[in-house]
Fold:
Amino acid sequence: MTEKGATMIYNRRRFRAVTIGTILAIGAIAAQSPQTPVTNQDEKATIFRSDTRLVVLHATVVDKNGRFVTGLPREAFTVFENGAQQEIRIFRNEDVPVSLGLVIDNSGSMPTSGRKWRPPRWRW
Structure:
């Protein structure tokens, strides 16, 4: 037998040993993992119940021209749930946070008409 043939046989045996060892290791790990308990039908299932006392409702009011209407009192609003009028317990006129993303394509594929885009000079 040549040295090349002996090396191939050795590599095949080594591959088989590693493969069999891996399969046995996976089987041993699977056998040790906790099994899902089987529940009897006589046992009661855990039930989670929750109640909501306050629902947050954000509203924006605009006129027929699309301009924002501000300064409206609580009495200007009525809230209904499934046809039943709900009491407005807390009323606030405030700005809410907004997340905004801006994507600008300034690559060579864009038309070069007009000025080049420059980052704004914002001051905080």
User: Anything to note?
Assistant: The beta strands are 79-81, 84-86. The mean pLDDT is 75. The longest strand covers residues 79-81. The chain has one helix and two strands.
